[in-house]
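Good morning,

Attaching, inline, the backbone tokens for the sequence recovery test we're adding to the shared suite. The designed sequence is right after.
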């Protein structure tokens, strides 16, 4: 019975032309996004912003699932209807971020591990009752001299495995997100090496711990140079390196890969995903799980002013359409709003 639920969720999430909206920013993270537009980081404003996104007419054409934060999972819209039900009524699968953030790793101040395993089984049970059918757990890895370390990879891989097993036992599809950070001046070759090393370590532990790879999704970074690197790249190179890396280490029985945008601009994320989608005969479904690359323009259009809600929704829908086109290798930069 549990496997049937997991399989049905994966089918819904991996519908061609659709992907996942990552709207799971913590209170602290969304504060940084709001600050740029002088929006007060109050629960009322966070509710209003999420309602704006989720009530955009037509988003179910491009969005198959939405990752929520615990607070958002419990919030209601202006009429008192739970926000999660707004999504369910559009046949959009409700997901939730279940990790509790990053902590510095002892003995390696440049590296982080992820907390949140304590009490997770009980939280997953509650989330399932609230309609959550997939979850996300993120770990981050720094590129640098002798980084990421074997110890950092092992610790995070063990946490991924514990989380994934608990999710699958609860009827919730786990998204495993090992993000090799774009912070730094490293080359794309260094990003490739780090990503391959991380993914190899993560899947080694997942398989040893008997996580059923058929009922999980992978959310990796694309292979790009560091944000402070002078190195230039092209979508074709990003796609070639990314696909080569994934083919080398990701088992074929993983059903889907849902890319994160990782600080790329909206147009860059679309161009790179479009180039990746042009590769045919992949063993996995390829799609997106974007946060900022789906939301930035809408947030800029809104600026916390409800009088601008309609314009923000129009902007959001256009952005979702373009990302959907990139998932189908049909995107063209000329389609961007000037």
């Amino acid at each position: 019975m549990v496997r049937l639920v997991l399989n049905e969720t994966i089918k819904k999430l991996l519908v061609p032309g659709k992907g996942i909206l990552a709207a799971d920013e913590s209170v602290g993270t969304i504060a940084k996004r709001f600050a740029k537009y002088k929006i007060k980081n109050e629960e009322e404003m966070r509710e209003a912003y999420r309602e704006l996104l989720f009530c955009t007419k037509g988003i179910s054409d491009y969005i198959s699932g939405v990752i929520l934060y615990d607070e958002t999972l419990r919030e209601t819209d202006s009429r008192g209807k739970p926000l999660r039900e707004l999504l369910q009524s559009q046949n959009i699968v409700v997901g939730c971020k279940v990790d509790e953030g990053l902590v510095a790793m002892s003995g390696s101040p440049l590296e982080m591990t992820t907390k949140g395993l304590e009490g997770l089984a009980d939280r997953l049970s509650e989330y399932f009752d609230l309609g959550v059918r997939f979850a996300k757990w993120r770990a981050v890895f720094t590129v640098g001299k002798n980084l990421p370390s074997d110890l950092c990879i092992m610790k995070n891989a063990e946490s991924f495995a514990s989380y994934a097993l608990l999710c699958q036992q609860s009827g919730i599809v786990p998204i495993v997100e090992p993000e090799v950070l774009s912070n730094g001046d490293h080359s794309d070759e260094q990003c490739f090496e780090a990503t391959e090393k991380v993914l190899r370590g993560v899947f080694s532990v997942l398989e040893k711990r008997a996580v059923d790879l058929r009922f999980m999704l992978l959310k990796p970074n694309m292979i790009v140079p560091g944000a402070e690197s002078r190195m230039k790249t092209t979508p074709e190179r990003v796609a070639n390196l990314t696909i080569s890396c994934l083919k080398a280490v990701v088992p074929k029985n993983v059903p889907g890969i849902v890319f994160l945008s990782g600080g790329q601009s909206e147009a860059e994320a679309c161009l790179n995903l479009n180039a990746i989608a042009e590769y045919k005969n992949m063993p996995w479904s390829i799609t997106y799980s974007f946060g900022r690359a789906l939301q930035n323009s809408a947030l800029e259009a809104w600026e916390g002013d409800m009088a601008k809600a309609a314009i923000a929704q129009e902007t959001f829908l256009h952005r979702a359409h373009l990302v959907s086109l990139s998932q189908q290798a049909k995107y063209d930069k000329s389609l961007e709003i000037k």
